[in-house]
Amino acid sequence: MAKRSDKGPEDKGRDQEPEEHEETVVNDKRRIDPETGDVRSPSPEGEPEALDDEDLEILDEAERDLVGEYRERAARAEAELANFRSRVERDRQSNREAIIVEVIRSLLPAIDDLDRAEKHGDLAGTPLEIVSQKVRQSFERYGMIPVGTVGEAFDPAIHEAMVHMPSDEVTLDTVADVIEVGYQLGERLIRPAKVAVSSPPAAPSEEDDK
Asked: If you count DSSP H runs as helices and E runs as strands, how many of each does the chain have, helices first?
């Protein structure tokens, strides 16, 4: 004779419920977050946890990175400051030379008059001779030098040819006479020298030989 089950429908439903599984919890006891490098909050119990070797290694690496970053920033700032000082010094020197050049150019007509008077012997023994010497010495202190000398090779960069004269005594274009002296300040040409140029005679062409 079969036994009757005393379990009702509700009991059968409870028997068929799935068993619950507990989730695995991993406790990371490191005080230093390896991803962010931040120090984590203390444990809920409130007791400080000691740093292990891995935490100390993370701290050391973060410290090295921070020191290296600040050193790199300091080096960049120092280089930028040096470049800024160089630019300021170049601009200051350029502005200074530009002002001197303008002053010299405004006085060139007076210097030309003194040069012409000296060539004619009108300065010798007069107060203007001393004035002329002082003016030239003042300009020389600023680095101004005259340009154009008889006998030197003609250079279109510093000479302006006013006259060309053929001559058998030269083999290349040569300054035969300085009509107006030029002046140069450092590497900057203030005014080219106006000169007369002696040129070698032109080679005869084939048509002339015929």
From this structure: 4, 6
| Distance (Å) of CA 167 to CA 163, 177, 198, 199, 202 | 13, 13, 6, 6, 10
The whole-angstrom separation of Cα 78 and Cα 71 is: 10
pLDDT, one tens digit per residue, over 14-73 is 555 555 555 554 455 555 666 666 666 655 555 555 666 676 677 777 777 777 778 888
119 forms beta bridges with: none
Q: How many residues does the chain have?
A: 210
Extract the tokens encoding 50.
């000691």
The model carries a pTM of 0.54
Provide CB contacts within 8 A for 153, sequence distance 6+.
Answer: 172, 173, 174, 175
- Residues paired with residue 180 on neighbouring β-strands, in sequence order: 194
Residues near 15 by beta carbon (within 8 Å), at least 6 away in sequence: 7
Cα separation, 181 vs 109, in Å, equals 11
